[in-house]
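Go through this fold for my students:
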Amino acid sequence: MTEPRPGRSILREPAFLRLWLGTTASGLATWAMPFMLGLAVLDRRIGPVTLGVVLAARTVGFLAAVPLGGVLADRHSRRAVLFWSGLAAAAASPLLAVGVGRSVALTAAAAAVVGAGQGACRPAFQALTAEIVEPERRQQANAATTLAVRVSTLVAPALTALLAAALSVPALLLGTAALWLVAALVPPRGHHMPDTGTASQRITTDLVDGMREVQRHPWFLAGLAALTAVIATGYSATGVALPLVSRDRYGTEAVLAAATTAYTVGALVGAVLISRWRPRNQGWAALAGLSLYGFVPLSLLFPVHPAVVVGAYALAGLGIELFNVPWFTATQREVDPRLLARVSSLDFLFSYGLAPVGLAVIAPAINAYGTPAVLATCAVVCFAAPTVSALIPTTRTFSGNSSRRARAPAAGSAR
């Protein structure tokens, strides 16, 4: 690892720049794919039911591969896991392009493989960041990474729509293979020393080891519980309720478009802010940021001006990055480096992995109890979950003495 210059931008470090480019490429491919399939519905290549099947297959592949990718990234080189997961997604993308409009089975199978590639690379990216970036610069590195992800959510749909004027949907899907090749080939090698003693263990045994590591960090359990609650209720409920409110209360889809855009813009602002800000009580500050999502269901609950809804979404986007970046940084700092990838995989699995469950439950709940009751409940959960988590010992700073003992043996290697 080269010695960084004081004040030097993290993106000017060659190793991190390569990792950032790989992360950005995978983010663009990830966010562009659903939009491309949506264009296939508009072109009548596939129907809405097929779209649902294909996206569900991708989600299943993602959820199945996240824990497996975490274990493999701890057993082997994180760089190798990125290579093979990116290569798998790149190889499946042409099959996806061939299958769309011709074979639902082929399209769904290819989407599942792409989803598996996405899932396997997520914990490896997190762990590799800790390998190549010095501890004092990881918050800046994580902010730069999440900034790229948020820009991807804005750029990918717009760029896809622009390219769609000249290219067919299969050609666009084929183009994502190039992005996955970048994600596979560009990231640098790290310094991780795989634990060869676990090579003969079952995957489940390694995951249990990861869960034991999680239990040693009360702040992690508390933060993960709060994040899961907010995503499974607030994020999922508003995803269902916002289109309904935009149509029925305001009579236009413009509120839907403005609110979702405001969320991403708020997240961009949050990423820039947290790249420099170092709150003294970073855990409490992060949980306070997470609780800001509670204003979203509140804004949808009452007949307010559309600007209030848009502002609430911007505030939620700001808050989620004030949580995400310190959360990732603390995980990279506190967790045993030998177990970092599988702990990160459990993070993704329990937080974002439960979002589809929330979406599946919210719609029947709205039908049974009404939109106001569901939104009010979600607002209470979004405010209460981070508040309760803040009462757990060690959440104030996202750190603990036990984790420092775990870090000591590996201080000169993987981190």
In short: Residues 218-248 form the longest helix (31 residues). The chain has two domains: 10-134+162-192, 212-410. Residues 402-415 have pLDDT under 50 and may be disordered. The radius of gyration is 21 Å.
